[in-house]
Amino acid sequence: MGALVFGLLLFLGTHSLRIVAEDWRARQLARLGPRRWQGLFALVAALGFVLLVWGYGQTRLDGVALWQPPLWTRHLAALLMLPALILVAAAYGPANRIRAALGHPMLAGVKLWAFAHLLANGRLGDVLLFGAFLLWAVLDFRAARQRDRRAGVMPAAGSVAATVLAVAAGAGVWLAFASFLHRWLIGVPVFG
């Protein structure tokens, strides 16, 4: 459990600097320069990610069950993952209407991913992992929207074609995960 908690602190801590220490982050960025800052950030975040993946795997071996979710929550989680992956695809594709409407669709997708997995899993490790990501995504989404308002940032309107591309890409990734990737990477089949 310690590796999971420490990994979450490192990974989400680095990704929370703009929420809790924007001025400190700006000073470090100016002092170190963009390349060194990004390298240090990536190193700490990668270490955190490795620890949280390994720690979460350990909690699955001897997990403390808090509750037993009903079977239907797995199906609901699988369904919720479709819009979650479309939101993530919209964040990284060309300017699209989803990004124009939300501003930060990746964070909205992370919120939906975490919520869906909290519904379908009832072990302590699940609550720590998905609960931490849900809390982080809620706080980061709020902070990012506030920064955008202060700076007067408005996302580009985006095209219908780019929006269709984001939906198709997200649906394709969802299909791959639902068919085989989730079982291969996580060891749990989505349907079955």
UniProtKB/TrEMBL annotation:
<dbReference type="InterPro" id="IPR009915">
    <property type="entry name" value="NnrU_dom"/>
</dbReference>
<feature type="transmembrane region" description="Helical">
    <location>
        <begin position="76"/>
        <end position="95"/>
    </location>
</feature>
<protein>
    <submittedName>
        <fullName>Putative membrane protein</fullName>
    </submittedName>
</protein>
<keyword id="KW-0472">Membrane</keyword>
<feature type="domain" description="NnrU">
    <location>
        <begin position="4"/>
        <end position="189"/>
    </location>
</feature>
<feature type="transmembrane region" description="Helical">
    <location>
        <begin position="115"/>
        <end position="139"/>
    </location>
</feature>
<keyword id="KW-0812">Transmembrane</keyword>
<dbReference type="Pfam" id="PF07298">
    <property type="entry name" value="NnrU"/>
</dbReference>
<dbReference type="GO" id="GO:0016020">
    <property type="term" value="C:membrane"/>
</dbReference>
<feature type="transmembrane region" description="Helical">
    <location>
        <begin position="37"/>
        <end position="56"/>
    </location>
</feature>
<feature type="transmembrane region" description="Helical">
    <location>
        <begin position="151"/>
        <end position="177"/>
    </location>
</feature>
<keyword id="KW-1133">Transmembrane helix</keyword>
